[in-house]
Design brief:
Number of helices of chain B: 18
Radius of gyration of chain B: 23 Å
CATH class of the largest domain in chain B: Alpha Beta
Largest sheet of chain B: 6 strands, mixed
Distance between the termini of chain B: 54 Å
Distance between the termini of chain A: 42 Å
Helix content of chain B: 25-40%
Largest interface: A-B, 35 and 39 residues
CATH superfamily of the largest domain in chain B: Sulfite Reductase Hemoprotein, domain 1
Shape of chain B: globular
Shape of chain A: globular
CATH architecture of the largest domain in chain B: 2-Layer Sandwich
Number of strands of chain B: 21
Oligomer: heterodimer
Number of domains of chain B: 4
Number of helices of chain A: 5
Radius of gyration of chain A: 16 Å
Strand order of the largest sheet of chain A: 2-1-8-7-6-5-4-3
Structural class of chain A: alpha/beta
């Protein structure tokens, strides 16, 4: 299924594995639970590894493992649940995570700008048929007052 | 006042374009009501009983004459020719159409105004003391700090979907005219032992169903660290605040459930990490401060003698001056309150014609600026004393010279059942009845300062829990009843009102107010204020007075 990544519509090469699903070859993402329980075997997986986090998960606990993951999936159970905006900021800003950060769940056109400013760079839209129209959202604003993941200097140091 | 540069203007213009497209997609069925809701709220648009309501931001209560004329125009062209000032110093239009809102926002943008983040679970309009910059007791003008916070909080990508709304107030005086202890964050400009000015930071205050007074999370914060500390508090709240129950999701509950000490530890730990990144440099502080420098006050203003002559000649003018005019830090200048509590109008309402008149008077007499206050009144902050008489004459001609500031008829009241879809009971009609019963101004002056606050539901938009007399509408089997509280205050000595007793039926509310005043008069010592009497004698005598008769 296609996704939006770095501002473009691209094919996705990741498989999001349920906790019960058997390991398959290729790039897979797992839940925090599965990672914690099957840490050793997953580390030997031949494809790339991704981790799925929700706002309930203890972000700080997985920081030592971040280098294992090429993808962090942040789950938005509702688009009004803003906890993962802070997760994205912290991953980029504090923990220097440079891999892909993906928004999954109720991910809609009108949240894409703020999500991207917070450091999320790929998006599985809840309404995939809106993907083409949603691309304009990244240009809703040409600047931000704040320090963001995309503009590390706040506007007051640039104006 | 602050003037937009290209960056500010572009952001507001782009916001209009963004919201225009969101409205278009909603009307085309591409966005569900549930998806559109937070988007329209973050642009100030509510859907109410009769029509949408649009809340326009008045950042820290400051407007120019040009802006006020634009509001008047908009209310004529898109609404019914009147607007409402709120307790957060904002403006509400009660009858715009949903389709016209993008055009209204575009009109506002032409005068550097907007409706950004006037609702929704985000950081709202920052408020301050209505006497900021002109009162003698001020340590430092809080308005540049409000503007710095306005910019930091506008479109903050991380904090657009907080657990609940978030309100910040800043003051520069010991006296608290901005109810800072009832805000999610209250900032007090204070001096430390080294003589440096910084902020005392309070967190976790709020009204609504569970009124709580804010507590000090940090006694002294250096100015350069303001934004990093705010960001740290917001980040902790965004992650920790409850999202399962909207009545337990304000930061006041987060603080209560986790304890102030734990929240402080989390905030300070977060702050250490971002402190350097967000240091406010002197250049930026100076850039913003240059918009709030003192105007060119006339030294000659104090030489005027006509002011005292006029007061001696005209009792009505003298009465207005006594009640509605306060001292300015500069001798010869005064601050004039324009009461929006005329008995004939709902509290805080004003017509477009009156807005135009005030815009002109501000240009003529007060450097072209107008302020709105937490008590839903307007002020002209820089009037030469010699100009007060002509100003008063003009105000009187427009029905704007009601001399009742701080009296019992200067009530705060929410829209209630007449407009609001949340309300259980009406509030505006009660104000009208109270005004009709107590229509003798001399009687009101004798009673001294009494703050009555009336809310039509538990959400408490009129701040009834900090009213000297608080009146809260409740629904009992489809009938409107009212719960009284006594002894609340939102000022420096902030306190929450104590419940008088069981709820009162609607037709007995005005009688109850009268009984409370009778009890007050019986126990009052000389010129003692109502609040002082309640605090001295306690609630019992009032209880007896009210319930013995029923």
């Amino acid at each position: 299924m296609p996704i939006i990544k770095d501002g473009e519509i691209v094919e996705d090469h990741w498989l999001h594995l349920d906790d019960e699903a058997t390991l398959t070859a290729g790039n897979i993402s797992v839940s925090l639970n599965r990672w914690q329980e099957q840490h050793a075997s997953l580390s030997k997986h031949s494809g790339l590894l991704g981790l799925r986090l929700s706002g309930d998960d203890p972000l700080e606990e997985i920081v030592p493992d971040l280098a294992e993951f090429s993808l962090i999936v942040l789950i938005f159970p509702a688009f009004t649940d803003g906890r993962c905006y802070s997760f994205a900021r912290l991953l980029r800003d504090r923990y220097y995570y440079t891999g892909e950060i993906r928004a999954q769940g109720e991910v809609l056109h009108d949240q894409l700008f703020y999500m991207s400013q917070s450091g999320i760079n790929s998006f599985e839209l809840a309404e995939p048929n809106q993907m083409e129209n949603a691309l304009v959202a990244f240009n809703d604003f040409s600047d931000s007052y704040q320090t963001t993941a995309l503009k590390p200097q706040p506007l007051y140091r640039r104006r | 006042m602050y003037q937009y540069d290209d960056y500010d203007q572009t952001m507001v213009d782009q916001r209009v374009a963004q919201y225009r497209d969101q409205t278009r997609r909603f009307l085309a069925g591409e966005l569900t009501e549930q998806q559109f809701r937070p988007l329209r709220l973050m642009n100030g648009l509510y859907l109410q009983i009769h029509a949408p309501m649009l809340r326009i931001a008045v950042p820290y209560g400051l407007m120019s004459s040009t802006q006020m004329r634009k509001i008047a125009d908009i209310s004529r062209n898109y609404d019914k020719g009147y607007v409402h000032f709120t307790t957060r110093t904002n403006i509400q239009l009660n009858w715009p159409t949903l389709e016209s809102v993008p055009d209204i926002l575009a009109e506002l943008a032409t005068v550097q105004m907007h409706a950004i983040q006037t609702s929704g679970n985000c950081i709202r309009n920052t408020t301050t003391d209505q006497l900021a910059g002109v009162s003698a007791d001020e340590l430092e003008d809080p308005r540049p700090w409000c503007e710095i916070i306005r910019q930091w909080s506008t479109f903050h990508p991380e904090f657009a979907y907080l657990p609940r709304k978030f309100k910040i107030a800043v003051i520069g005086t010991t006296e608290d005219r901005a109810a800072t202890k009832l805000h999610d964050i209250g900032l007090h400009l204070v001096k430390n032992h080294q003589g440096e000015i910084g902020f005392e930071v309070l967190v976790g205050g709020g009204l609504g169903r569970t009124p709580i007074l804010g507590q000090i999370i940090r006694p002294f914060l250096e100015k350069k660290d303001l934004l990093s500390y705010l960001e740290a508090i917001l980040r902790v709240y965004n992650r920790l605040g409850r999202r399962d129950n909207k009545y337990k999701s304000r930061i006041k509950i987060t603080v209560r459930e986790h304890g102030l000490n734990h929240i402080r530890e989390l905030v300070e730990a977060e702050w250490v990490n971002i402190r350097e990144q967000l240091v406010l440099d002197d250049t930026e502080i100076a850039r913003v401060k240059q918009y709030f420098t003192e105007p060119a006050y006339q030294v000659s203003a104090v030489a005027d003698v006509s002011f005292s002559d006029r007061k001696a000649d005209n009792a009505d003018f003298a009465r207005w001056v006594k009640q509605n005019v306060v001292d300015h830090k500069i001798a010869g200048y005064k601050i004039a309150y324009i009461s929006l509590k005329a008995p004939s109008m709902p509290p805080g309402d004003i017509t477009s014609g009156q807005l135009d008149v005030i815009a002109n008077l501000a240009e003529q007499f007060s450097m072209g600026e107008i302020r709105s206050s937490h008590n839903q009144n307007l002020l002209l902050s820089d009037v030469q004393q010699a100009d007060l008489y002509p100003l008063w004459m003009c105000l009187q001609a427009e029905g704007l010279a009601t001399a009742n500031i701080n009296t019992m008829s200067d009530m705060i009241c929410c829209p209630g059942l007449d407009f609001c879809s949340l309300a259980n009971a009406s509030s505006i009609p009660l104000v009208k009845e109270i005004n009709e019963r107590f229509d003798d101004l001399d009687y009101l002056y004798d009673l001294g300062d009494i703050k009555i606050k009336i809310s039509g539901c538990m959400n408490g938009c009129a701040h009834q829990s900090v009213g000297h007399i608080g009146i809260l509408g409740v629904d009992k089997k489809g009938e409107e009843w009212y719960q009284f509280t006594l002894g609340g205050s939102s000022e420096q000595d902030a306190s929450l009102g104590e419940r008088l007793g069981r709820a009162i039926p609607k037709d007995k509310v005005v009688d109850t107010v009268e009984t409370l005043l009778e009890v007050f008069k019986q126990h009052r010592l000389q010129d003692e204020l109502f609040l002082a009497t309640v605090r001295r004698i306690g609630i019992e005598p009032f209880k007896e007075g009210v319930y013995a008769n029923h």
